[in-house]
Amino acid sequence: MASTSDIRKGLCIRYNNDIYKIVEFLHVKPGKGPAFVRTKLKSLTTGKVLDNTFSAGHKIEDVRVETRSYQYLYSEGETYHFMNTDDYNQIALQESALDSPDLMKEGEVVTIVFNTEDSMPLSVDMPASVILEVTHTEPGVKGNTATNATKPAKLETGAEVNVPLFINEGDKIKVDTSNGSYLERAKE
Question: In what residue span(s) does the Elongation factor P C-terminal domain sit (predicted)?
Answer without folding.
Answer: 130-185
